[in-house]
Write a structure and sequence with these properties.
The protein is α/β, with parallel strands linked by helices and 286 residues long. The chain is built from 7 helices and 9 strands. Strands 1, 2, 3, 4, 5, 6, 7, 8 and 9 form a 9-stranded mixed beta sheet that branches. Helix 1 links the parallel strand 1 and strand 2. Helix 6 runs antiparallel to helix 7. The longest helix is centred in the C-terminal third of the chain and has 18 residues. The termini are far apart.
Length: 286
């Protein structure tokens, strides 16, 4: 087993998924030298031990995914840092491939994996073909102001919506440059980490990955999806949100809209469709 000079930060509430995430990190072909688990104030959990990886459990003074993550960065000992959600399970070669790629690309670059659904094994982002694909493209382009078809992969639309990458459409399996990275996992040099609190809302951090990505772009950092780095999500990305969460999501995306000077009229059209049609009919795909 190869131990890499790499710190992993996991902001968590200490739920059931966390131990499986940690196990996937410490049982790969290459493992991180340390994992820092950042819990909210007052939350405790049993120590986790590993022969090769030092696992630190700390309590952030403030609750919230972004705040807990930012606090944990101060405990990182190594030059390369990976942020991870607590419900992401990593392929046994993922960390090794991440490390190899960041060593090639160097500072000023941030990397993310391809995500799969843990329950089905299917890739999370799949671009549809046929008539369904046509209608989806029409909606994305005419309402969400996104590029047509495959050109929207990895892009942020003019109303602040982010589109993932369908790995089956990447012709060359090399780093694929994008405009944003999902917050569930990303890796960079420690000096490239965004250390200021860029997320002004409480509760579930809707849109924080887009805001983080915008900050990275403003600093001149480049972002890439690494097709050889595979990770699985245990929380279904298609899960339905309650009304409170839907409105919190809209509020967060309005904040994103302001950061990119996006189109408010088309954003309002999207928000109406999102809340009053797609959510009510439980057909919205997050």
């Amino acid at each position: 087993m190869n131990v890499l000079p790499l710190s992993v930060v996991i902001a968590s509430l200490g739920g059931d998924h966390l131990l499986k995430t940690v196990n996937s990190l410490i049982n790969g072909k290459s493992v991180p030298n340390e994992i820092i688990i950042s819990l909210p104030p007052g939350v405790t959990m049993e120590p986790i031990t590993s022969i090769d990886t030092l696992i630190k459990i700390i309590n952030s003074p403030n609750k919230g995914q972004v705040k807990q993550r930012l606090f944990a960065y101060g405990y990182c000992s190594f030059e390369i840092v990976m942020q991870s959600d607590d419900d992401v399970y990593y392929d046994h070669l993922c960390i090794q491939h991440f490390y190899e790629e960041i060593m090639i690309l160097g500072p000023g670059n941030v990397l993310g994996p391809i995500f799969y659904d843990l329950s089905t094994g299917e890739r999370v982002v799949k671009f549809k073909g046929g008539l369904k694909g046509l209608f989806k493209n029409l909606y994305d382009t005419l309402i969400c102001m996104a590029p047509w078809g495959e050109r929207k992969m990895g892009k942020i639309s003019k109303i602040g919506l982010a589109y993932g990458v369908d790995v089956s459409l990447i012709k060359e399996k090399k780093p694929y440059e994008v405009s944003w990275l999902p917050g569930a996992c990303s890796l960079s040099y420690k000096k490239d980490i965004i250390t200021q609190d860029y997320y002004p809302f409480s509760g579930k951090a809707f849109g924080e990955d887009v805001l983080q990505s915008i900050k990275r772009s403003q600093l001149g950092q480049k972002m890439y999806i690494i097709p050889s780095c595979n990770a699985s999500l245990s929380t279904p990305i298609t899960q339905n949100l309650d009304t409170k969460s839907v409105r919190a999501n809209i509020k967060a995306h309005r904040f994103v809209l302001e950061r990119i000077n996006g189109n408010s009229l088309f954003f309002c059209a999207w928000a109406l469709i999102y809340e009053f049609v797609l959510h009510k009919l439980k057909k919205y795909r997050a």
